[in-house]
Amino acid sequence: MAIAASVSGTAAAGADAVPDGKTVVVLGDSYSANKWDFFSENAECVHGDTSWPTQLAGLMHSSELLDGSCPGASIDTPPGYTLGIETKTADRAGAFGPRTKLVTLQFGLNDHWGSNDATLWSSLQKCVFDLVDGCGPEAVDQGRMPDYHGVSGAIYAQRISNAVTYIKYYAPNARIVLVGYPELFPSGQDTVCISVLGVAPYIQPRGRALIEFLDRIDQAQREAAGLLGIDFLDTRTPTAGHGLCSDQPWLNGFGDFRADPGGLPFHPSAKGDSVVAGALYAKYGQ
Questions:
Q1: For the chain, first and last CA: distance in Å?
Q2: Hey, CA dihedral for 276, 282, 284, 286, is it positive or negative?
């Protein structure tokens, strides 16, 4: 109870309004929300029409899905929405209860890790799109890339444990699932790229630091799920071969007609999100 209180504060009072809870609760970052309001000064919790939570609700033919995901959200890195804030907000909306069957968590890419304060967003300009200095392993020591050496299953589990404990208590019948990120680039390579208009890819030949960061987040999520006794949904395997700059991308480049030309760059297209929604439905939707 003390651990739960550290996440929710007085939020439990809000849950009393709808004590049974929602069937499905989604907590996550822009890979769940898949939309960004570029004209807003605040990181509002907007949601895309083809995001995987929206498609999952359609597959389940249910309005009992509460999508609490927010673009830019992190596990616990300010200044935006965090897992704790999303959990508290969802609780106030009556999300958690004995009727809750599924709670999904998709976080990690927007956090500080290890010895520096870099974020993946800041590293795009300072590292990925820097053709002079590149984005090799040395970028970590230079503070231009999140410190992937500080990413591990144990650390990831510790950072989400309060929220998981709270959800387990107030939604005792729910399966809690860490949703992995789709394949952006094949694991282990040095080169990263992103398609521009579907014809002229931007190529960063020294991108190993980004690849390593993504690989370690994926491994940390898998390990953290095991440590906390919750599930992990692998989305890399079903999206393999369809990353950025692949022949058939399921993630958006810049105006790439082969995905969603107006979609959020570096994020899944409608097709990519349908794969995630389908995987969740196949495993938990019955």
A1: 31
A2: positive
The closest alpha carbon to 123, from 112, 114, 115, belongs to: 112
One-letter amino acid at 122 equals S
What averages of pLDDT result for each successive group of 10 residues across the chain (286 residues)?
Answer: 45 51 97 78 78 96 92 94 97 96 97 95 93 96 97 98 98 98 95 89 96 98 98 98 94 93 94 98 91
CB burial of residue 41 (10 Å; 0-12, 13-18, 19+) = exposed
Whole-angstrom CA distances from 264 to 131, 205, 250, 283 are: 23, 23, 12, 27
Residue 40: how many CB atoms within 10 A of its CB? 10
What's the pLDDT at 42?
46
Nearest to 182 by CA among 46, 116, 276, 259: 276
- CB neighbourhood size of 130 (10 A): 16
Which residue is associated with the tokens 């849950």? 15
> What's the pTM value of the predicted model, to 2 decimals?
0.91
